[in-house]
Structures are given as structure tokens and as C-alpha cells.
Amino acid sequence: MPTPLTPHLPPFMSWTELEAAGLDPNPVVLHGIAKRMWRDLHLGKTFGKKSVLHPREADLWQRDEFSQLRGAFGSERLGWKLSALSAIGPDYAAVKIVGANAINRHFGLARSASIVVLLDKFTMRPLCLFEGTGLSAARTGTYGSIVADAIFAERDPIKVFMFGGGPVARNIALSLWANYGKSIDAVWVKTQSLGTAQAFVRSLAHTDLPLMAVGDNARLAEADLVVTASNAKSPVFSANQPNARAVVLHLGGDETPASYLTQMLRHGTLVCDDVAMVSQRNSQSLSLLFSARGTSLETQGPLLGIAGLADLVEGSVPIERPVHITCVGLPSLDLYVAAYLYEALRAQRPARELSEHGS
């Protein structure tokens, strides 16, 4: 009978420390990790659950230190929430705890902060702790290259229009550059202001991506891939702006107009990374379309042919463009990246040393 894994709890590993130790996976490695996860999800080898609690927003604005900032959030959602993402895979399990509030940025803090606990699947004993904020942005970045792989031909030149200039948008750009870069003809970036979009472009000057900051949606009609990774609380484009064969990768909240989604139900392909999770989260445009009608995406989606991204990635879903893909962020992606980091850490540091740190 095999001996269960011995828990190893090194000091809390931040993403910066992982980078310094050369343990953080580059975008090509991350893409490979994500491909394995999507294959395992398709085969039923991994599954997960996401739960979210929202504090009452009135509690925030009643506090003196926050009340004067209320006017700064006219077009931006707070995204104030406490989330727990749990997943089980072939060998490991993981739980990620996330606290988020966009108001943090006004105090020089990141919008969200998280911790990932990796556990042995069979004993359910904790093995390692990781700072999850960098991990989350990095794993979410793989959605861009995974979708490009699944829909566009290998040498198909594409143009990209991206809404958003935060860590997720940055990792989307890096993943596309590393895994699909030679086939990208243009990347237009639009954020809340032209200045922040220009700063985003400058931050990626080390890549050879053809990036351009824009202040409007004029180039949207030319885009083959549209990525919504903003913190907007209302649609960022109108129904007639994307072209008739566009692929929209929706990573934010209520960023897609209901009229566009209604068109997609009739003449396109609708996909979720997980239909049930997107429905239960009920904060994104697709799920809100159904809940506003007194029904739910979870009950109606399968009847309307709304597919899971794992099936699209594995080629078992016929694609009729345009395509709209809503992603809530799968817990299994956190699990697979954390497992990779743990195994890299074990390979770099002897088990005895890890055990001593954990005692």
C-alpha cells in the first residue's frame, strides 16, 4: 500500500518569491498546464466549485474613510466580494480564498488578494501555501491562447481588440504573444482613459506585439478576437460593433449588451467555461440575460445548446461564428497551476528541508 504524501508546509510563497526562484511558469508552460486541465475536465478527471459572498455596499459608504470615494465609481463596479474556489484533480485538491474590492486601488493596493492551499487528494492534508493573486492573473491569461488555439487555424492571422488594462489583460496579452504571437496582426487596447491604455502599451514594450492604445471602438469591427477584461459595470460595446465572425472572450461582469447575446442565441455559438458556475455566479451578462427573464442559464442553457469550453477545446462542439465565450474562472485552473508550482518547489528543495520549514 503506498505511503500517503507527507505534508510539506514551507513559508508562504508569494508570486514575487516564485519569480525570484525561477519557479513561476512562463506563458508557454502555463498554456500547456491549461491544456492538460481542459482535457482532464472533458474526461471528468477534475471538477470544482465556486462560492461568493457580497457584503452590503451601504456598509462601505457609511465609513468616513470610504464615503468620499463613492463618486469615483460611476462607471466601474466595486467587485466587493469574498470568494472560495475549491477543486479536486487526479492527485491534488486545492482551495483558493479571494478578497476583492476595487476601492483598494485608491489606497495603493491591488484590487484583490488571495491565498491558495494545495492538499493531497487522498488524505486531504495540506501540502503547501501560495500567494494566489499573481497565480490567478497568470492562469486567467491562458484563456486567451486556449480560445485562439480552439477556434483559429494555427497560422491564421488575427486582430485583437482588448477592453481593460489590469493584470488579467496583461496576462492575456502575454499568453497570446508567447503562444500565438507571430499570427497576431494588431492588438488594440482600450481602458477607462487613453492615458492608461498608453501606459499599458508601454508596459509591454519588451514584446513584439503590435499594440496600439485607442480611445474609442472604431477598430472593433476589424477585430477577430474581442477580449473584455475591464471592471466596467455596463456594456463596453454596442450590438452592431463587432464583425459577423468575431469571437468575444468575456472575462468581466456585465460588459456585453443583452441585444448582442440575443443575436448570438439565434445566429452564433454561446459557450461558458462552466455553465452552472456562470449561472450561479449571476454577475455576468449572459447569466443576467436569463435571470432578468425569471429563469436561469443553468436550466435553459443546455436546452439552447450553450456548450462548455472543455468540449470546445477538445473539438466536440461544432463552431458557428460569431462565438461568445463567458468565463467565470475555473477552480481547477488554480489547482493545476498550484500543483505545478508545488512539484517544481519539491524538485528544487529537498523534502527534508521542506519538512523542517513546515515544523
In words, what does this structure look like?
- The chain is of the alpha/beta class.
- 37% of the residues lie in helices and 20% in strands.
- Helix 5 (133-151) crosses helix 6.
- It contains 14 helices and 13 strands.
- The strands form two sheets. The protein has an eight-stranded parallel sheet, with helices on both faces. Strands 1-2-3-4-5 form a five-stranded antiparallel sheet.
Please name the defining characteristics of this protein:
single chain, 359 residues, alpha/beta, 5-stranded antiparallel β-sheet, 14 helices, 20% strand
How many H/I helical runs?
A: 14
How far apart the termini lie comes to 26 Å
Overall shape: it is globular
Structural class designation: alpha/beta
Unreliable residue stretches: none
Q: Describe the largest sheet.
A: 8 strands, parallel
The average pLDDT is: 89
The percent of residues in helical segments reads: 25-40%
